[in-house]
């Protein structure tokens, strides 16, 4: 059944996107989010129960109840009542999603269906071993000749499309900060304002730039800004993560290759450096490239030319190189892992992006920006942050920086009830950060009152603001709690 396969594919894609938002290992959370995704996608309002979750034996059982399945309603409207379940897309979607989320093939089979005269739809999802013989008659719906090949081809096409899109985009979208008119618009912290100012100045000169900063701190945002504020703005901006690709692939991506240069190279292809024309190429995680590739890149920077893999004649390139790293390249050089001559070629200008914890003034502004972004991305009407989230967002240290903040907001918006994001919708790590009370120097240890206020805050959030419940949990009287919270508020 083509519909099931289509749904499967769709579910896989959504789960893959969700994995970015959730901790990779947290399969349970991903499964819980499936119901949300079905609602957002307009498939159905559903409830999912985890009946069995054995990651060691790879055995799972998920129980799914669907209310007003859009698919069943459409089917009934078009074909009338059926004598068997009709929610093929939803079954496929759930199967594809769960399979991606759990890393094990999960098959959802519907046993009750609105389209077949039942009051609701109901389906069970299990791994093949748990289904046993019962799965056999259904397998044909799930099987696809070459789903993997299809994914590869689609990914390739998506990449191309993405590049084309970026080609046309002159503004720094997707960024976290509305940079367009003046880079300083929504930046409140002096630390980041300084970075943005330097980026604005450097954009006008055509020098190679090295951007350093922790993972997720927004190095690509700065790179995009430099590009968009430069004379190359109308030309392409091609980002590539050097740490994500094995050497051989990275080389092909950057320099291109000739047909037959290696197995799988069926036709000539230009690399990013060539394709970018007079645009900019952003080399992220430059500290991760191999010594061999470092030599080749050095040559590119010196000669302004590249060699496609399998070719002998160099080709001139005109692209501007902007590189970034989360490593301390000077340390890497001292350890013999990074070439000093390449470093000097890259770091004609060096820009440092401060970590989010060093610019707390920007946290809430960025949070609001991401809420607006999620609202349009996931089509959640009236999405907003409850005021009680502010303290939570400000007290957390954000080791994953802006990217972690964006992911946390996206996750929270998916779990939010009726668009209202509450503290409990945030990941556990944010809600209850590991107590790092005794890190650093003794004079930086938290004051007793701070610890008390923080603890009270957490308990209040956990009890949904119920003061008498919170007082009971804290082992104090409601009057004492009232006095203590009033003091905390005053001190803020
Ligand atoms: Zn159904």
Secondary structure elements and pairings:
Blueprint lengths: L1 H20 L5 H14 L4 E10 L4 E9 L2 H10 L8 H15 L3 E7 L8 E7 H4 L4 H7 L4 H22 L21 H14 L5 E4 L6 H10 L8 E5 L5 H9 E2 L11 E2 L1 H4 L4 E5 L6 H13 L1 E2 L8 E2 L3 E6 L3 H6 L5 H7 L2 E4 L10 H15 L6 E2 L3 H7 L5 H15 L4 E2 L6 H4 L16 H15 L4 H8 L3 H14 L1
Parallel strand pairs: 5-12, 5-13, 6-9, 9-12, 14-15
Antiparallel strand pairs: 1-2, 2-4, 3-4, 7-8, 10-11
Zinc ion binds next to loops.
| Content-based structural category | alpha/beta
- Ligands present: zinc ion
Terminal CA distance reads 61 Å
Oligomer: single chain
For the record, what CATH class of the largest domain applies? Alpha Beta
Mean pLDDT: 83
CATH topology of the largest domain: Rossmann fold
Please give the largest β-sheet: 5 strands, parallel
Q: For the record, what is the CATH homologous superfamily label of the largest domain?
A: P-loop containing nucleotide triphosphate hydrolases
Number of strands: 15
What is the helix content?
40-55%
Give the amount of beta strand, in percent.
Answer: 5-15%
CATH architecture of the largest domain: 3-Layer(aba) Sandwich
Radius of gyration: 26 Å
Number of helices: 21
> What characteristic shape results from the CA principal axes?
flat
Uncertain runs? 168-185
Q: Could you list some keywords that capture this structure?
A:
flat; 47% helix; 4-stranded antiparallel sheet; Muramoyl-pentapeptide Carboxypeptidase, domain 2; single chain; binds zinc ion; Helicase, Ruva Protein, domain 3; alpha/beta; 492 residues; 3 domains
């Amino acid at each position: 059944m083509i519909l099931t396969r289509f749904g499967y594919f769709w579910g896989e894609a959504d789960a893959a996107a969700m994995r970015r938002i959730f901790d990779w290992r947290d399969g349970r959370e991903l499964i819980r989010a499936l119901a949300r995704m079905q609602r957002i996608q307009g498939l159905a309002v559903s409830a999912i129960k985890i009946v069995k979750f054995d990651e060691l034996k790879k055995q799972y059982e998920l129980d799914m109840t669907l209310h007003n399945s859009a698919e069943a309603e459409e089917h009934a409207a078009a074909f009338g009542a059926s004598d068997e379940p009709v929610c093929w897309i939803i079954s496929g979607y759930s199967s594809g999603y769960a399979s991606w989320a759990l890393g094990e093939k999960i098959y959802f089979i519907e046993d009750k269906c609105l389209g077949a005269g039942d009051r609701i739809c109901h389906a069970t999802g299990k791994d093949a071993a748990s289904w046993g013989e019962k799965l056999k008659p259904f397998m044909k719906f799930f099987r696809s000749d070459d789903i993997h090949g299809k994914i590869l081809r689609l990914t390739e096409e998506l990449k191309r499309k993405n590049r084309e899109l970026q080609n046309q985009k002159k503004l720094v979208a997707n960024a976290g900060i509305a940079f367009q008119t003046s880079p300083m618009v929504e930046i409140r912290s002096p630390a980041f304002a300084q970075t943005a100012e330097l980026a604005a100045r450097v954009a006008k000169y055509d020098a190679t730039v090295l951007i350093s900063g922790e993972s997720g701190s927004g190095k690509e945002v700065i790179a995009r800004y430099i590009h968009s504020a430069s004379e190359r703005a109308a030309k392409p901006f091609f980002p590539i993560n050097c740490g994500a690709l094995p050497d051989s692939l990275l080389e092909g991506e950057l320099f291109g290759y000739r047909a037959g240069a290696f197995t799988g190279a069926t036709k000539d292809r230009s690399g990013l450096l060539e394709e970018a024309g007079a645009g900019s190429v952003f080399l992220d995680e430059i500290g991760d490239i191999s010594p061999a590739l470092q030599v080749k890149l050095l040559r590119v920077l010196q000669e302004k030319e590249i060699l496609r893999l399998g070719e002998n004649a160099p080709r001139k390139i005109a692209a501007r190189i902007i590189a970034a790293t989360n490593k301390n390249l000077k340390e890497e050089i001292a350890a013999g892992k990074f070439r000093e001559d390449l470093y000097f070629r890259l770091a004609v200008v060096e820009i440092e992006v401060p970590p989010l914890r060093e610019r707390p003034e920007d946290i809430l502004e960025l949070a609001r920006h991401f809420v607006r972004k999620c609202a349009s991305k996931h089509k959640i009407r009236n999405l907003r942050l409850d005021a009680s989230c502010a303290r939570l967002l400000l007290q957390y240290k954000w080791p994953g920086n802006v990217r972690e903040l964006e992911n946390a907001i996206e996750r929270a918006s998916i779990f939010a009830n009726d668009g209202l994001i509450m503290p409990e919708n945030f990941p556990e790590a944010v809600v209850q950060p590991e107590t790092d009370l005794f890190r650093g120097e003794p004079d930086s240890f938290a004051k007793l009152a701070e610890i008390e206020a923080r603890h009270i805050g957490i308990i209040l959030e956990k009890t949904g603001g119920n003061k008498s419940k919170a007082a009971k949990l804290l082992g104090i009287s409601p009057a004492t709690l009232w006095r203590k919270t009033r003091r905390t508020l005053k001190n803020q």
